UniProtKB/TrEMBL annotation:
<feature type="active site" description="Proton donor">
    <location>
        <position position="112"/>
    </location>
</feature>
<dbReference type="InterPro" id="IPR044791">
    <property type="entry name" value="Beta-glucanase/XTH"/>
</dbReference>
<feature type="active site" description="Nucleophile">
    <location>
        <position position="108"/>
    </location>
</feature>
<dbReference type="InterPro" id="IPR010713">
    <property type="entry name" value="XET_C"/>
</dbReference>
<keyword id="KW-0292">Fruit ripening</keyword>
<feature type="domain" description="GH16">
    <location>
        <begin position="24"/>
        <end position="222"/>
    </location>
</feature>
<keyword id="KW-0378">Hydrolase</keyword>
<comment type="similarity">
    <text>Belongs to the glycosyl hydrolase 16 family.</text>
</comment>
<comment type="function">
    <text>Catalyzes xyloglucan endohydrolysis (XEH) and/or endotransglycosylation (XET). Cleaves and religates xyloglucan polymers, an essential constituent of the primary cell wall, and thereby participates in cell wall construction of growing tissues.</text>
</comment>
<keyword id="KW-0134">Cell wall</keyword>
<dbReference type="Pfam" id="PF06955">
    <property type="entry name" value="XET_C"/>
</dbReference>
<dbReference type="GO" id="GO:0071555">
    <property type="term" value="P:cell wall organization"/>
</dbReference>
<dbReference type="GO" id="GO:0010411">
    <property type="term" value="P:xyloglucan metabolic process"/>
</dbReference>
<keyword id="KW-0808">Transferase</keyword>
<dbReference type="InterPro" id="IPR000757">
    <property type="entry name" value="Beta-glucanase-like"/>
</dbReference>
<feature type="signal peptide">
    <location>
        <begin position="1"/>
        <end position="28"/>
    </location>
</feature>
<keyword id="KW-0328">Glycosyltransferase</keyword>
Length: 302
C-alpha cells in the first residue's frame, strides 16, 4: 500500500513537471507549423509570389526579385524551410535563407545559394555576421542536386553554438568562444528571411557568367516552414527578451539542453565528411585575404 501510494505520488510529481514544462514553452511562444502565412509575409514584390497549397513559389525576372520575412523576431531555437532551387539555368541568381537582427551592429546567419549554368552545380555559401561584421564565408557544393527535390535547410541557434544544417547534416558550426574574448551573437532578437535576386556581378563563377534573362522567370519553391524558437515581442527590450528566452530555475528550454550545446559524435563525423568532400572555400584558410588568421579560426576545432 505504502509503496504504491508513494509511486502514484511521484508519478503525480512527474505530471506536474510536464505541465510546468509545457506551460513554460507555451509562454515562450514557441511555434511549430508548416503554413507560410502563419509565420511569414512577403516583404517585397508581392506579385512575384504564387501559392499552390502548401507550396510557395517566389520568382526573379528582369523586372524584380522577391523576398519574405518572418512576422516575429526570435532568440534561440531552430528554423527550417524546405527549398527546391531554380531549375535549369540559374546562373547569376542568388537565393538566400537567413536570420538577421537589425541595426549597424547586427548579427546574421546566412545560407546563400549561388546559381549556375544548366547542369553545373549550385554552390552554398554560408556566412556569419557578429556585431555588424561578416567576412566569414564558407562555400560548399552539395551531395545531391538541390534543384530536383525539396531539401531542408536549418539554422539551430543557442547560447553555445550556431549550427547550419542541410537535411539535418551539420555543414557548419560557429561556436561560442566568449571565454576567449571573442564576441558571440546572443543578445539581439533575429528575424527569419528569404529572398531571390540578381547577383550576376559576383555569384556565378566569380561573376564571369551573367544572368541569361531569356531563361527568366527564375523560380525558387518552398514548403515545410518550421520555427521552434522563442518569440521576442518588439515592445520588449532586447535584454528582457534575452532573459525570457534563456532557461532558468522555473523553465527549461530544449535549446539549452546539453544534447544541443555541442554536436554529437555522429554529427561531428558528418561535419568532417562534409568538410573533406564538399567544402570548396573556407575563409579560415584564405591567407591571401587574411594574412593573419581570423582569431576565431584558431579556436574553432572544425
Ligand atoms: C524583360 O524580358 C521580357 C521577356 O524576355 C522582355 O520582353 C522585356 O522587354 C524585358 N524588360 C526589360 C525591362 O528588360
Ligand atoms: C558552377 O560550375 C562551375 C563549373 O563546374 C564551378 O567551378 C562553380 O564552382 C559552380 N558554381 C558557381 C556558383 O559558380
Amino acid at each position: 500500500m505504502a509503496s504504491s501510494s508513494s509511486r502514484s505520488l511521484s508519478m503525480c510529481a512527474a505530471c506536474v513537471m510536464v505541465l510546468v514544462l509545457s506551460v513554460a514553452s507555451a509562454t515562450a511562444g514557441s511555434v511549430r507549423t508548416s503554413r507560410f502565412d502563419e509565420l511569414f509575409q512577403p516583404s517585397w514584390a508581392l506579385d512575384h509570389f504564387t501559392y499552390e497549397g502548401e507550396l510557395l513559389k517566389m520568382k526573379l525576372d528582369n523586372y524584380s526579385g522577391a523576398g519574405f520575412s518572418s512576422k516575429s523576431k526570435y532568440m534561440f531555437g531552430k528554423v527550417t524551410t524546405q527549398i527546391k532551387l531554380v531549375e535549369g539555368d540559374s546562373a547569376g541568381t542568388v537565393t538566400a535563407f537567413y536570420m538577421s537582427s537589425e541595426g549597424s551592429n547586427h548579427n546574421e546567419f546566412d545560407f546563400e545559394f549561388l546559381g549556375n549554368t544548366t547542369g553545373e552545380p549550385y554552390l552554398v555559401q554560408t556566412n556569419v555576421y557578429v556585431n555588424g561584421v561578416g567576412n566569414r564565408e564558407q562555400r560548399l557544393n552539395l551531395w545531391f542536386d538541390p534543384t530536383k527535390d525539396f531539401h531542408s535547410y536549418s539554422l539551430l541557434w543557442n547560447q553555445r553554438q550556431v549550427v547550419f544544417l542541410v537535411d539535418d547534416t551539420p555543414i557548419r558550426v560557429h561556436s561560442n568562444l566568449e571565454h576567449r574574448g571573442i564576441p558571440y551573437p546572443k543578445d539581439q532578437p533575429m528575424g527569419v528571411y528569404s529572398s531571390i535576386w540578381n547577383a550576376d556581378d559576383w555569384a556565378t563563377q566569380g561573376g564571369r557568367v551573367k544572368t541569361d534573362w531569356t531563361h527568366a522567370p527564375f523560380v525558387a519553391s518552398y514548403t515545410g516552414f518550421q520555427i521552434d524558437a522563442c518569440v521576442c515581442p518588439a515592445t520588449v527590450a532586447a535584454s528582457d527578451n534575452a532573459r525570457h528566452c534563456s532557461s532558468s530555475a522555473e523553465k527549461r528550454y530544449w535549446w539549452d539542453e546539453p544534447t544541443v550545446s555541442e554536436l554529437s559524435t555522429h554529427q561531428s563525423h558528418q561535419l568532417l565528411w562534409v568538410r573533406a568532400n564538399h567544402m570548396v572555400y573556407d575563409y579560415c584558410s584564405d591567407a591571401t585575404r587574411f594574412p593573419s588568421i581570423p582569431v576565431e579560426c584558431e579556436h574553432h576545432r572544425h
